[in-house]
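Hi support team,

I've been running sequence recovery on a batch of backbones for a student project. Most finish fine, but this one hangs at about 90% for roughly twenty minutes before it completes. I'm not sure whether the input is malformed or the queue is just slow. I've pasted the structure tokens below so you can try to reproduce it. Let me know if you need the job ID as well.

Thanks,
M.K.
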């Protein structure tokens, strides 16, 4: 989800023509916005096409909802008699149900040391907007600033300049820091839900593992493309020399559906080899095989 390969995967889903895929694309954007409410403090160097104004605005909306959470719960309980009356329930029962659903008031509510939700909101506003400005300045000064991949999900600060493994930082250290941050903010202000940070930490770890799987799939696709390019080029040379094509590729049976004429077989094998060489990044196309010698 988070990263260049994940973005490519989502773009393929978006243009697949499936309404469910479009809904999943929007869901991924919402999840990214949830994660960015804390990742802006733990990473740097976000790509301009990953950290967008839309996700920044969604993050602000999420944190604003956390601020309004307590008053919203009180308003919903206050409107409970009216809602129940709309479904034919007597208003008296609705008035009695409100106090029953509300938390007990016999214990004094702990006093908040400070408004942690508002602090998180304003901190995200300042730091998140700073990341946006840095991305804009980088795009306006291409060639003068250090380049960053436009789809980068950010460089983790918890790698401590390469002393800690990248994947260890984003799958273990970042979730632990998020849980610790949630525990501190909840202790300072009980209105901030600790479960929000627990779920957020689980998502960050799961999305990092998902990103690793996508990167690995890209690497394996490139490796297979190079292997197939060499296989098809070798088969073209073998058929051009008067031999027969084989179907064994690295211990894997790879069926070849070829025309009957050797000349057509050579042309098709060369086309397949060229196509897979183009798919394998950084490889030059194979040199054309010499035409078969004319019969004496």
């Amino acid at each position: 989800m988070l990263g260049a390969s994940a973005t490519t995967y989502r773009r393929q889903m978006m243009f697949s023509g499936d309404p469910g895929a479009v809904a999943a694309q929007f869901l991924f954007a919402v999840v990214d916005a949830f994660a960015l409410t804390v990742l802006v403090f733990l990473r740097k160097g976000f790509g301009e096409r990953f950290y967008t104004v839309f996700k920044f605005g969604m993050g602000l909306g999420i944190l604003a909802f956390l601020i309004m959470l307590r008053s919203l719960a009180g308003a919903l309980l206050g409107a409970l008699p009216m809602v129940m009356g709309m479904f034919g329930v007597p208003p008296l029962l609705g008035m009695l149900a409100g106090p029953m659903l509300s938390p007990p008031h016999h214990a004094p509510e702990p006093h908040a040391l400070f408004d942690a939700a508002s602090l998180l909101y304003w901190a995200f506003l300042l730091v998140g907007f700073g990341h946006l400005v840095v991305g804009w300045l980088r795009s306006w000064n291409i060639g003068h600033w250090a380049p960053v991949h436009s789809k980068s999900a950010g460089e983790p600060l918890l790698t401590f300049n390469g002393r800690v493994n990248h994947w260890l930082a984003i799958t273990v250290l970042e979730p632990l820091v998020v849980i610790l941050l949630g525990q501190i903010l909840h202790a300072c202000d009980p209105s901030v839900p600790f479960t929000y940070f627990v779920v957020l930490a689980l998502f960050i770890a799961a999305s990092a593992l998902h990103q690793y799987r996508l990167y690995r799939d890209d690497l394996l696709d490139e490796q297979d493309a190079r292997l197939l390019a060499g296989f098809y080029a070798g088969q073209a040379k073998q058929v051009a020399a008067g031999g027969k094509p084989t179907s064994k590729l690295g211990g894997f049976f790879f069926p070849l559906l070829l025309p009957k004429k050797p000349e057509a077989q050579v042309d098709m094998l060369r086309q397949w080899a060229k196509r897979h060489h183009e798919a394998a990044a950084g490889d030059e196309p194979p040199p054309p095989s010499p035409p078969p010698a004319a019969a004496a």
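--
Follow-up from support: It reproduced on our side and the slowdown came from queue contention, not your input. DSSP finds ten helices and four strands in the chain. No action needed from you.
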